[in-house]
Amino acid sequence: MATQFVTCVRCSSQICGLSTACLNCGAFLPVAPMPMQHVRQTYGVQEFPGKLQAVSIIQIVAGCLEILLALFWGVYTLILGVVTMGIGLLLIPLPLVLLAVGILSLVSGFKGLNKKINKKLSFGVAISQMVLLLGCDFLSFAAGLTSVILLTQDDSKAYFRSIGQG
Asked: d(Cα 8, Cα 132) in Å, to the nearest integer?
């Protein structure tokens, strides 16, 4: 929803419609102010949408869980390999994929928290997390799906356009 502002008659600055005096020059606003103007919210480099911060946090948490799961599956695969005399080592790609996606999730999440988010990296990590459903990793799938939903919201798209990643 657009924010409504009143224009000061003396200095022409934009003041919230609830103010009785101009915050810039101190002039009293008339009882019947000029018509309210809708000011469209635009994102500058300093304004970072909360949804993108949520994506970053989700990716950090999911990345930590994926790395821990990769360590568990790595040990399990090695034990299975010893017990089955090497046949169980055919499952070694599973923990390696989990480890790779976990590391990428952490990188993407920390870049996002530092407000240096990369749209392609974030989407790539989210899609990779969703692909982990093939390995029955439901938590990573949920994190990836949530990230994709938040990244495709209008304010997230507007922020990416404002930083030249639209």
From this structure: 56
Pairwise CA distance, residues 65 & 4, whole Å: 44
**Sequence-separated contacts (24+) of 69-72 with Cβ below 8 Å:** 69/95, 69/98, 69/102, 69/137, 70/95, 70/96, 70/98, 70/99, 70/102, 71/95
Q: What is the dihedral of CA 68, 74, 80, 84, to 10 degrees?
A: 170
pTM reported for the whole predicted model: 0.69
- Per the DSSP assignment, residues forming a β-bridge with 147 are none
Average pLDDT over residues 27-34: 64
Residue whose structure tokens are 């938040």? 150
Residue located via tokens 């055919």 = 90
Q: Tally the residues of the chain.
A: 166
- The pLDDT of residue 35 is 58
The pLDDT value given to residue 49: 85
Considering the chain, what percentage of its residues have pLDDT values greater than 70?
86
